[in-house]
């Protein structure tokens, strides 16, 4: 995966970024898994273009949903060093199973990590 996440040297911000383009492949069935990603953070501004490029780098990756969410979280923490970070991956239901892993470095409420069902779920 492309881990070249970029951030600016501006004044720290607190924002939530959304993307509906994450696609990975199940390592067991080799079927595609689609997800919406929510990145809530407080720190140096992450450029949207670099986050999009980074998420697109997962297009041919085989991995379980939880592992992918953890890796996205770890890459952002390592590269951008935000003071607060939450990564939530809301996967499209497949086989009747909901998989919505969340990783944060602060205490979150259930509503913050999963803001209701998205239309594509």
Can you characterise this structure?
This protein has 121 residues and is α+β, with helices and mostly antiparallel strands. The chain has one domain (13-106): GTP Cyclohydrolase I, domain 2 (2-Layer Sandwich). Helices cover 24% and strands 30% of the residues. The chain contains 3 helices and 4 strands, in the order E-E-H-H-E-E-H. The protein has helices spanning 48-56, 65-80, 110-113; strands at 13-25, 32-43, 84-91, 102-104. Strands 1-2-3-4 form a 4-stranded antiparallel sheet, covered by helices on one side. Strand 1 (13-25) and strand 2 form a beta hairpin. The protein is globular. The two termini are 25 Å apart.
How far apart, in Å, are the first and last alpha carbons? 25 Å
Order of helices and strands: EEHHEEH
> Which percent band covers the strand fraction?
25-35%
> Number of DSSP helices?
3
User: What class would the helix/strand composition place it in?
Assistant: alpha+beta
User: Could you list the spans in which at least 5 consecutive residues all have pLDDT below 50?
Assistant: none
* Overall CATH class: Alpha Beta
Number of structural units classed as domains: 1
Largest sheet: 4 strands, antiparallel
Can you tell me the CATH superfamily?
GTP cyclohydrolase I, C-terminal domain/NADPH-dependent 7-cyano-7-deazaguanine reductase, N-terminal domain
Helix content: 10-25%
What is the CATH architecture term? 2-Layer Sandwich
**Adjacency order of strands in the biggest sheet:** 1-2-3-4
**Cα-atom radius of gyration:** 14 Å
Overall strand count: 4
Task: Let me know the average pLDDT.
Answer: 87
CATH topology: GTP Cyclohydrolase I, domain 2
- Using the alpha-carbon principal axes, give the shape: globular
